[in-house]
Amino acid sequence: MSRSDTDANSDNDNFSALMGGAMKDVVRHQHDRVDLKTQQQASATQQYRRQAASQQPQQLIDGLSDEIKQLVDPEQELIHAANGVQLNVMKKLRKGHIPWQAGLDLHGFTVDQARDELSRFIRDCARSDSRCVLVVHGKAFKNDAAPAIIKSHVNDWLRQMPQVLAFISAQAKDGGAGALYVLLKRMRS
After folding, report:
1. Which residues, 6 or more positions from 99, have their beta carbon under 8 angstroms from its beta carbon?
2. pTM greater than the 0.70 cutoff
3. What are the backbone angles phi and psi of residue 110, rounded to the nearest 5°?
4. What is the mean pLDDT of residues 18-33?
């Protein structure tokens, strides 16, 4: 027996003595295991971040970065409101009571394509004086361990767009956590 084994046994004996009779029903684990699903999810997220960091420097298109500030969970509800947006407006938006006039589906797009399409879509809708639009970003369910990359980017990009007043995850009938109602600023007086 090595010195460290002797020390470990001594520590166990000391602990047992301190605990008195309370330790008699405690069963010692025969192995240490980690929850592999949680480990795989963390590993996939870290791998994506390493890949993104090792690639070319971040690109800016219409002032929108291709770097994610915060990865979001596929089922996470997204919500954002600019200063001055009233609570009752957000409640109406959440319930789907503000009808959307146009929609964009980003399924199957690369990050660069999604950024270009979203930017163009929001600009065009703001110019046509649309009040509310629907953006479907999806939830990344192809691989359970994969983070929701497009959803995370859309969350960041919409916050950077001056035309956007607020956004919130859609009602189930319109895509639920895989889509957003986006409230736009009025361009006309």
Report:
1. 132
2. no
3. -75, 170
4. 58
